[in-house]
């Protein structure tokens, strides 16, 4: 019976036999390793016997023999991966899985080498040149592989290639390619390796990780010795600088934040590549071969080394599962696989947090730990003068390094080359308030943080207890940090990274690394809160024109409310992840923390109000008709004072901006401005600094001043075609674009027209439609977009006084290149025009498109429909929310039309995967809907588009009945 891999066989001078099968020189070493993970995946000796049998069966038929061998080994790999997946699901040991897969690959290559050297190109008396070492490099050289990892091989020669060596290499490579594996390879002499390693940092890194597989061990040993002596020696600073620069460039591509909700597990910040970079640098500078040697060299202490192991094992678990789930080399932990991984890794749902959210929180905590390990290594490199000293920010970086000095405010801290450090090891034990004071002093003096000080802080976190949290001085220092004018976001982020922020404010600690499983929020909750503080500081600086109104209002708020605003932004989402509504729960937390931070009773009341109502202004601005007086009355009833509205406007601006790239835009800024100025007169007793008529006139005056190519008569005529609300809701650039579009369309004598453009900040394609207005217009446009495969993310609907509709539709961008997206936009607008000319059967075309695809399927949202007569004096307001998909808006508007409802105003918005569509409707007689029976029928009908397709098909008849009942009841 063939011996499984892992058992020792008797050695021979040139060939080895195990279980009756011969192996090439070096293969016995492969088999004799003390721990063989591949032994759990397949029996290498049995497979070797199969290959010998195939060689005898196909004697004289080399092509058939190669195919049979490749097929047998492909079967081995397929079955081995399936076995590795089952073992991973059982033991949940990611690194062990990566070792098994790598070891299986080692054995497969060994079998190919043995097969080629024995059956294809045997040599009895090899010359000096006919020797070769087969070496694993790159990721494969580390001895760890994910299921979809590439295989990097180096065929190492004494000095030149020979026919025999070339044949062996080709046999191995073609065998691997025929198995469907991805292989990178190089054939070099030792001299070539050394020469290229000196010139190319990528090759240098690959050789740094080189691992001998089999062949001539002496060749590999010579290369390693010369590499250490001729390349590595005295080049540490050069290598460190290159690797850190390479890391920065990589993070620019995949995202600078480690708290992106769809992280790249391999290349993202805090991912595996960061651990690899850390170890590359350690191997190069400290000349270590194994991670455990970092402990022996004092780079990490025992606790830090265990952390390194935990991070590595967790990230390998995630990466291997990702490859198994997707069946490919997928490195982005996207929404559509996060839930699958959470289940595989054993996470369960808790009150207020889904299983997937608990999994992702663990992921982000690990990413943070990887950052801590990187900082520790960099500190050691600085002490060896292998790395430049970091600075707090770019301004400080321009300052000259200053010698060590004691800070005048405290003898416990010193400034060491523009970095704050502790004066002695007992500063925190002696006075726990120093755990807050160190950050206060760093912010005050613009000092970066010395890694030794941060290590001491981390080891002293147990000193942050209820007594320190209640200490007035500690809370005063914290409030000054939070509302400081210099580098507030940077300092708070550092407090968060070392664990002080979560310990000092335990409610904040609960949201550290917490992700929200949706497509709207780009960052974890704690990262979002810290970014809000940064945006508020930017608003206050007045250097960014995009904040407009918020910057103006920041200069007018009462001085005592400045700190309240910073605290409110710090706390507004602090109750996320709890079973109750996070706004109301957050207000309770704010009432407890306000007095602790030293706020007065009145300021605490304002703070709690801001937290409780932080979503109100955004919701009303984006989903209500701002020209409806009832909308303004309801908003005024909530805010009650001009000062509160100012604070809420600023907070809302910062909150939206900090959600993620492209979320804040000129349209939302214009809506907030419109809501603010509509509500201002009611809050000031009828007096307004800029009343509605004046604001309309001012907007029209700006329009006149910019549209210089038109005559005064043409401008006056065009202005008269728009209702006042248009001039308040649409920004100047869009107004000018609309005017030229309308002018060109009418000059061409067209009854309807479309155009498109790109909004780079939001990543959307913007379509503009000009057509005669009619009740089904929005439904036809939405149906045409759905038929063309375009997903509407928001829409702005305007009607002119002469019966035209001027609609702006934003659709998700599909292609990265403008040329490709231009062709797609042309197809979509062509479909819209054909739909408006009644040349298409839109229901059939939309039905063929099917349900939503891709990431949307990963989400579950309970649909809601509300029918409200309190939000408008003249109209019934229908709000529909649920899981977005192509065609949804078409089905909703079609349903409303079938219900004999007239849509007078529509407010279409998408928040990630959630669609929130609000329609102002009347019956065909222009009256509001008040009948309870008809309201119930409307709700039932509007819920149907969210039902699974079989259910919708089964109930299509009852849907028509409900429509008829609704019409009769009306």
Automatic annotation (TrEMBL):
Cofactor list: Mg(2+)
Keyword Transferase applies: yes
Compositionally biased spans, kind Basic and acidic residues: 949-962
GO biological process: regulation of nitrogen utilization
Cross-referenced CDD domains: ACT_ACR-UUR-like_2, ACT_UUR-like_1, NT_GlnE_GlnD_like
Stretch list, region Uridylyl-removing: 407-765
Positions of the UniProt region annotated as Uridylyltransferase: 1-406
Leader peptide range in chain numbering: none
GO MF assignments: [protein-PII] uridylyltransferase activity; phosphoric diester hydrolase activity
UniProt keyword list: Hydrolase, Magnesium, Multifunctional enzyme, Nucleotidyltransferase, Repeat, Transferase
Domain HD stretches: 525-648
Protein task: Modifies, by uridylylation and deuridylylation, the PII regulatory proteins (GlnB and homologs), in response to the nitrogen status of the cell that GlnD senses through the glutamine level. Under low glutamine levels, catalyzes the conversion of the PII proteins and UTP to PII-UMP and PPi, while under higher glutamine levels, GlnD hydrolyzes PII-UMP to PII and UMP (deuridylylation). Thus, controls uridylylation state and activity of the PII proteins, and plays an important role in the regulation of nitrogen metabolism.
Domain writeup: Has four distinct domains: an N-terminal nucleotidyltransferase (NT) domain responsible for UTase activity, a central HD domain that encodes UR activity, and two C-terminal ACT domains that seem to have a role in glutamine sensing.
Protein name per UniProt: Bifunctional uridylyltransferase/uridylyl-removing enzyme
Native source species: Rhodoplanes serenus
Upper lineage: Bacteria, Pseudomonadati, Pseudomonadota, Alphaproteobacteria, Hyphomicrobiales
């Amino acid at each position: 019976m063939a011996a499984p891999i892992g058992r020792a066989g008797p050695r021979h001078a040139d060939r080895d036999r195990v279980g009756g099968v011969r192996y090439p020189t070096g293969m016995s070493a492969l088999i004799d390793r003390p721990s063989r993970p591949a032994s759990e995946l397949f029996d290498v000796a049995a497979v070797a016997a199969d290959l010998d049998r195939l060689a005898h069966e196909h004697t004289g038929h080399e092509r058939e023999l190669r195919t049979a061998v490749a097929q047998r080994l492909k079967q081995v790999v397929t079955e081995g991966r399936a076995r590795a997946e089952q073992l991973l699901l059982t033991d949940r040991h990611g690194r062990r899985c990566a070792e098994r897969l790598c070891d299986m690959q080692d054995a497969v290559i060994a079998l190919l080498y043995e097969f080629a050297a024995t059956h294809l190109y045997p040599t009895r008396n090899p010359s000096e040149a006919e020797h070769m070492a087969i070496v694993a490099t790159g990721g494969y050289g580390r001895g760890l592989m994910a299921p979809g990892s590439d295989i990097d091989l180096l065929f190492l020669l004494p000095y030149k290639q020979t026919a025999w060596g070339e044949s062996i290499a080709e046999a191995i490579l073609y065998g691997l390619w025929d198995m469907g594996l991805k292989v990178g390879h190089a054939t070099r002499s030792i001299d070539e390796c050394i020469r290229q390693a000196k010139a190319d940092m990528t090759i240098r890194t690959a050789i740094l990780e080189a691992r001998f597989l089999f062949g001539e061990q002496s060749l590999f040993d010579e290369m390693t010795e010369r590499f250490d002596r001729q390349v590595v020696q005295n080049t540490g600073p050069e290598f460190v600088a290159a690797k850190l620069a390479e890391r920065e460039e990589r993070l620019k591509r995949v995202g600078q934040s480690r708290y992106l909700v769809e992280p790249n597990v391999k290349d993202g910040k805090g991912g595996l590549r960061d651990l690899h970079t850390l170890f590359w640098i350690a191997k190069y500078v400290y000349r270590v071969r194994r991670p455990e040697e970092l402990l022996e060299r004092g780079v990490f202490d025992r606790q830090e080394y265990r952390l390194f192991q935990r991070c590595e094992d967790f990230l390998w678990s995630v990466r291997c599962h990702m490859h198994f789930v997707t069946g490919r080399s997928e490195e982005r932990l996207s929404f559509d696989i996060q839930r699958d991984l959470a289940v595989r890794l054993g996470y369960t749902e808790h009150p207020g947090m889904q299983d997937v959210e608990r999994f992702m929180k663990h992921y982000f905590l690990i990413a943070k730990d990887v950052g801590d390990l990187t900082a520790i290594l960099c500190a050691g490199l600085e002490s060896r003068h292998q790395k430049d000293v970091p600075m707090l920010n770019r301004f400080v970086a321009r300052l000259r390094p200053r010698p060590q000095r004691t800070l005048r405010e405290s003898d416990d801290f010193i400034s060491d080359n523009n970095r704050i450090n502790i004066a002695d090891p007992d500063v925190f034990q002696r006075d726990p308030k120093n755990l807050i004071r160190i950050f206060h002093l760093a912010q005050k003096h613009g000092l970066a943080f010395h890694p030794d000080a941060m290590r001491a802080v981390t080891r002293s976190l147990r000193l942050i207890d209820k007594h320190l949290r209640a200490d007035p001085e500690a809370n005063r220092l914290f409030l000054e940090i939070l509302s400081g004018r210099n580098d507030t976001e940077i300092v708070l982020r550092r407090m968060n990274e070392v664990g002080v922020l979560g310990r000092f404010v335990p409610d904040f600690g609960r949201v550290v690394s917490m992700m929200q499983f949706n497509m709207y929020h780009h960052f974890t909750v704690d990262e979002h809160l810290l970014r809000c503080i940064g945006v508020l500081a930017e608003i206050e600086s007045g250097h960014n024109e995009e904040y407009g109104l918020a910057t103006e209002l920041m200069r007018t708020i009462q001085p005592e409310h400045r700190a309240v605003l910073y605290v409110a932004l710090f706390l507004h989402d602090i109750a996320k992840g709890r079973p109750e509504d996070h706004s109301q729960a957050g207000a309770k937390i704010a009432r407890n923390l306000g007095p602790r931070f030293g706020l007065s009773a009145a300021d605490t009341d304002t703070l709690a109000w801001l937290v409780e109502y932080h979503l109100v202004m955004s919701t009303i601005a984006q989903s209500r008709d701002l020209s409806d007086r009832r909308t303004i009355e309801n908003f005024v009833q909530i805010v009650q004072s001009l000062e509160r509205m100012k604070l809420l406007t600023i907070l809302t601006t910062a909150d939206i901006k900090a959600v993620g790239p492209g979320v804040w835009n000129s349209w939302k800024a214009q809506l907030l401005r419109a809501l603010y100025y509509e509500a201002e007169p009611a809050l000031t007793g009828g007096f307004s600094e800029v009343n509605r008529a004046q604001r309309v006139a001012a907007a029209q005056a700006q329009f006149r001043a910019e549209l210089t190519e038109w005559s005064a008569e043409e401008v006056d005529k065009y202005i008269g075609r728009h209702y006042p609300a248009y001039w308040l809701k649409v920004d100047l650039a869009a107004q000018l674009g609309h005017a030229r579009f309308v002018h060109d369309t009418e000059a061409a004598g067209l009854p309807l027209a479309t155009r498109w453009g790109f909004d780079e900040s939001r990543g959307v394609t913007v379509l503009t439609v000009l057509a005669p207005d009619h009740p089904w217009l929005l439904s036809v446009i939405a149906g045409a977009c759905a038929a063309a495969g375009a997903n509407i993310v928001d829409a702005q609907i305007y009607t002119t006084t002469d019966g035209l509709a001027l609609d702006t539709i934003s659709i998700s961008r599909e292609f990265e290149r403008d040329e490709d997206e231009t062709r797609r936009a042309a197809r979509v607008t062509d479909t819209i025009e054909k739909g408006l000319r009644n040349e298409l059967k839109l229901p059939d075309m939309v039905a063929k498109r099917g349900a939503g695809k891709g990431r949307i399927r990963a989400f579950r949202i309970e649909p809601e429909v509300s029918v409200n007569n309190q939000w408008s004096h003249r109209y019934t307001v229908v709000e529909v929310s649920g899981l977005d998909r192509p065609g949804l808006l078409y089905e909703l508007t079609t349903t409303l039309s079938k219900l004999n409802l007239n849509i007078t105003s529509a407010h279409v918005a998408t928040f990630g995967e959630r669609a929130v569509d609000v329609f102002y409707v009347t019956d065909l007689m222009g009256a509001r809907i008040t009948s309870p029976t008809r309201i119930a029928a409307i709700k039932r009908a509007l819920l149907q588009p969210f039902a699974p397709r079989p259910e919708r098909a089964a109930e299509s008849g009852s849907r028509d009945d409900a429509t008829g009942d609704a019409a009769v009841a009306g």
